[in-house]
Amino acid sequence: MAHSRFIRDTGLTVRMTTVMFLLGAAFVALVVVLMYAFPQWALLIGLAGIGVAFYQWWSSDKLAMRAMRAREVTPEEAPELHGMIDRLCAMADMPKPRVGVADLDIPNAFATGRSPDRAVVCVTTGILGKLTAEELEGVLAHELSHVAHRDVLVMTLASTAGIVAGMLTRGAAWGGFGLFRSRDSNTGIAVLGAVVVSLVVYAVSFFLLRLLSRYRELSADRAGAYLTMRPQALASALQKITGEMAAIPQRDLRASQAMNSFFIAPAVSGATLKTLTATHPSLEQRLEQLARIQAELSRPQQ
Questions:
Q1: Using an 8 Å Cβ cutoff, are 133 and 234 in contact?
Q2: Tens digit of each residue's pLDDT (9 = 90 or more) over 46-102
Q3: Contact criterion met (CB below 8 Å) for 148 and 220
Q4: What is the C-alpha end-to-end distance of the chain, expressed in Å?
Q5: What angle do CA 10, 280, 204 make, to 5 degrees?
Q6: Cβ(235)–Cβ(287) under 8 Å?
Q7: Is 143 part of the annotated catalytic residue set?
Q8: What is the pLDDT of residue 177?
Q9: Alpha-carbon dihedral of residues 187, 189, 194, 196, nearest 10 degrees?
Q10: Which of 143, 217, 288, 296 is catalytic?
């Protein structure tokens, strides 16, 4: 975890380490099986897997910004936003990330980047006009904690196994149809095994990333609330953001759902989040946690 004044979260560190280990092992197993199934393409498969992982790591900030049609803004373009992030970074004793704005009506915010030095904290134009200064500060503190905890990097790298598994599953199935029809039954079995292993790795990646995503959102809520000492402001912001989603056209929500794991609140409307496939804990769970923190901070000091 990066050095900062955000509260440390051992549970988050353990979960990130476990997810990275399990998905790393699954990724290696996938590559080995594919190399066995397609020995003539073994070197290419290995290089492709490494290439995708490197590209995800190196370009994560650019990919996320491009996906959200966001741009980096200077202090002159967004003085209030920069000023707020300056104050929070000073409070947290952490390097200031770059600041971005996405021209979208969806009220949301996210953090991305391969390291604290390359991080970007981005807000949408839809959130800027709907939150008070205290509420926006709570949202930004939440996003900055993701940068300090380095969980953005872990989510980016961990997603590589699922991306590669999905790509190779489609490629193996598409390329393997002719092999299934061939007389070489061993080749057909090897291709089928590769497809099955790819599907398993994709499923494991899918559920592990969502488990980690739900926990890291609760961790960021805690860290941001303790930094600002105003958990009620973050609670109010979450309620407003979630409520505003109902007014966003479904087409716009669907266009942004690929970024759900990185948003402070998922781009969904009228759907329950109490499922294994949810990227975020339920709003009720987040509000209950913030209420407990508010009660703790309100108790008189002995």
A1: no
A2: 787 778 778 877 887 788 888 888 999 999 999 999 999 999 999 999 999 999 999
A3: no
A4: 31
A5: 75
A6: yes
A7: yes
A8: 43
A9: 160
A10: 143
Find the range with the poorest average confidence among 154-163, 237-246, 252-261.
Answer: 154-163
Average pLDDT on 279-301 reads 92
What are the pLDDT digits (tens) for 108-122?
Answer: 999 988 777 889 999
Domain-by-domain residue ranges, the chain? 10-298
Task: Tell which wins on pLDDT, 190 or 55.
Answer: 55
| CB crowding 99-134: b at 16 or more within 10 Å, else e | bbbbebebbbbbbbbbebebbbbbbbebbeebbeee
Encoding tokens for residue 182? 């061939």
The 10s digit of each residue's pLDDT in 90-106 is 999 999 999 999 998 99
Q: Which residue has the higher pLDDT, 240 or 25?
A: 240
**Which residue reads 């707020």 in tokens?**
84
Instruction: Look up the pTM and report it.
Output: 0.86
pLDDT at 273: 47
Closest CA to 153 of 88, 61, 29: 61
- Report the residue count for the chain: 302
Mean pLDDT of 181-205: 70
260, two tokens? 């759900």
